[in-house]
Amino acid sequence: MLIAALLCSCLLYAGVWTFAPDDAWFPVPLADRNYPRFSLSFPYYFEQEIDTLQRGERGGLREFLEFGGVRSLLRYESESDTPMGAELSLGAGLITLFDSFADRLDNLGWEGSGFLTLNFRTGEHTVARFGFHHLSSHVGDEYLANYGVIGLPMEDDADLAKGATYGFYYVRDSLLLGISFRPSHLVHLYLEARYSMRMFTYMYCYNRFPWQVRMGLELFVPTGDEAIGTWYLALHADAFQESSWYPSSTIQAGFLVKAEGKAEQVRIGLEYQWGRVAIAAFNHVDNTGPDSWDEVRKERYFAIGAWYDFS
Question: Which CATH number goes with the domain that contains 121?
Answer without folding.
Answer: 2.40.230.10
